[in-house]
Amino acid sequence: MQFTESNVDLIHFLVLGAIIFSIGLYGVFSNRKNIIIVFISIELMLLAININLVSFSVFLKDLTGQIFTMFILVIAVAEVAVGLAILVAYYRAKGDIDINKMNQMQG
Amino acid sequence: MIAKVIVFLPLLSFIIVGLLKRNFVRSAGIIASSLITISAVLSCFVFYKVIFNASIEEHIVFSWLSAEGLSVNWSIYIDSITAVMLVVISVISALVHVYSIGYMEYDHNLPKFMSLISLFTFFMLVLVISNNILQLFFGWEGVGLSSYLLTGYWYKKASAYKAAIKTFLINRVADVCFAIGIFTIYFTFDSLVFTEIFKNTAAHANDSISILGINMRSIDFICFMLFIGCMGKSAQIFFHTWLSDSTEGPAPVQALIHSATMVTAGVFLVVRCSPLFEYSEVALEFITIIGAVTCLFAATIALVQNDIKRVIAYSTCSQFGYMFFACGVSAYDAAMFHLMTHAFFKALLFLGAGNIVHAMMGERDIRKMGGMYEKTPLTCFMMTIGFLALSGIFPFAGYFSMNAIIKAAYAKNTAIGEYAYSLGVVTVCCTSFYSFRLLILTFYGSSRYPASLSKNINEAPLVMLAPVSILAFVTLFLGIIGQYLFNILDSGEAFWGNAIYVAATNNLADKVSNLSWLVKLSSSISAVIGIIIAYIFYVYRTNVPAILKNKFQFLYAVLLNRYYFDEIYEFIFVMPLKRGAEYLTKLTEAQMIDAEGVNKFAIYPKKCSEHISRFQSGLIYNYVLVMVIGIILIASWYFIAYFL
Amino acid sequence: MIIYDLLFYVFAALMIFSAVGVVSVKNPVYSVLLLIFTFFNAAAIFILLGAEFLAMAMIIVYAGAIAVLFLFVVMMLNIKTSQIKQCAISHHKLLISVVVLLLAELIAVIYLSLHPQPEIATSQNPLIIDGLKDNTYQLGFVFYTKYVYLFQICGVILFVAIISSIILTFRNSKNIKKQDINSQMSRTKESSIKLATIKTGDGVNAIHRK
Question: Would you state the pLDDT for residue A22?
């Protein structure tokens, strides 16, 4: 953790987080294949946020960021579990997980 | 204090009875009648106090308007004219309340009827006790409203509600002129309170005012406008068409409103404003002419009508013509006396007619009646008394008052006065003719109603007979009491106090007593002539009417159709307005406003929402895309704000 | 130190490439595997930062549980790659431009907010990172004292997630034969055994006729 002489600054980590976030976001709305990719992209976004939080906590020498990251971890797990359960139930009902057919909320 | 009780008891009755449901028939009748009877008794007491102690009661009940320069209050002002009117209104109202318990027994909603006639009584009382012309106007409008409600009481019948609307509209047209009169009074006198106006009349006697470029004396204009209001209210010629249609209402309504109270408001106004009218000879001449013409006009119509109530309604119209031309010749006391006696015997006649109609199960055509003397003797007797009073036979009530009016007309000694006199005498003849025609055709002779009806015809119940008999009793003796006991006519000042003002030049008291005996008896002579003619036509040689009808067919048709006034008014006023309204409805409402304006405005949101709902595709990635675009926009807003 | 920067750039580049791969490969199984690779790279970056407990937690939880769950579901749902129609994504340029715009704004925000230096926590704050103790110790020290309620609630959340997944996916098969002990034990002789005398040669079917 002694990087007093390194050139890697907080900004680099934050930019890295921003890039990963954008990639995840791109995955959410540019995928027309199936819905698993959407879930995976959401996980990518959460990862980017974690990087953000941890880098802030380290550079500001405040433990709050890491604690919050732990909680985000827990929530992500719960969300994936429930989301995938819903997906499985949906698949059993519809037989197909084509994202273009999931438009029951239209209108 | 007592005056407040007199005025507010009818209002209380209106509220209490108006809240009762329609099955509380008995209690509604008892409550309303007793409250109004208390009011009547108290009015008699007030009458005694005011007349014999010559006191004027005046106090302010509540303040109303207090604008810059204009201050009007709800007030009570009782002088001799008001006291007389109070007695007339409340006694007849009480009797009508009792009568309607019996007459409207099987009606669908008796409490509503009782509350409406109580409301009417309240408005009329407010009208007569006011000390300013604005409160009088309030009462004026209120009685117009109640008359509308009561005439259209059986509103499910088309003829009834049309008659009600006609009543209200004609009154309204006259009221516009009345209102203009009020404005001009304020403009000229700077006050609306009677006492102040009358004090200042002499000072403003020569003020002139310019209306639509025509210069005239303010007082002339004021009196004209006020009188036009009275013409509407008291059904004088040109404004009379509503009176005969108003017989669509129940008989108690006619007895109360159209004989004794509402139509007397016009005469009351003229007498009350006698100081004003005395300064305007033009207005007085106008009143005389109108009154005399109406008198004869209505009487001629009544000669040939076949509906029992319409005959009596036209007779009312004609009698008010008498009262007005009495005012026109400055015989205000005679006018008030005639008002009083007329109220009682006209109410008697209407209630008696109600008895007959009730007994005949709603039949009103006198050609289908006859021989009712055997079936309804008491009513026959009392109606005979009423008609004798109407014809002016000694010693019934009408004799004294009508005689006084006719004598005053002659004593005036002007051309107009003589014109009025001659019309008045001829009208007495017509009056007695149609009265006795009605009597003979209805009560005497052989029966013309179908035999199946005969076993159901019986005399009216006591609750309906009692008021009629009280009225008959009063009619018998009121004339004598008035003339000899109260000295209403001869003593002028002693009875009326300062309430009636007669200009010195117009004072006819001396001239009246110096008339020749022929003039004094002229009305009685013509009345007897009328009775004889009626007897000949309908008892002695019954084919004469039919022969006359055939010979003078055109004249008969004109009279039967009431000089075609209804048709003329329909043509001049009603149809153009209706056509215009229909045209405007089609043009502006349907086309311009509905199609172009409102509908387009209504379709627009629908179309917008159809466009917008395409955003809701149901697909998740679209929603996320829109969210992200939103975030980007918000962030760029802040950036722009930051960099600028 | 150069090695430090180098490691950072290497891991960052690998992470970005694998993330791009996650969203663009056709086979969903490859997607998940690339996701696991991304997680590993992220863990390495965390270790570089000095938050080693979080790195390990990420590997265990994300890569070990979540990604495996994804894999299970992908394989269970049996998505065949041949079924996936390879349609060109509509409004491709719009999407790319939106993402690039968002990225640009994020970076702009980062630069703008960090140039006035944010303040570093003072020593009174109990959450300050102490250079002498390790990450695990410090996290534990804070978790079980200051945030213990939140910690327990996390447990409850996970419990609720378990229950909800079970309820959503549990299927009661109707044609599975199961044992119902109570009805087995409550059988009586009269309801289960029927004695019949059969003449020789009739066969068992005679019982039904009687």
Answer: 94
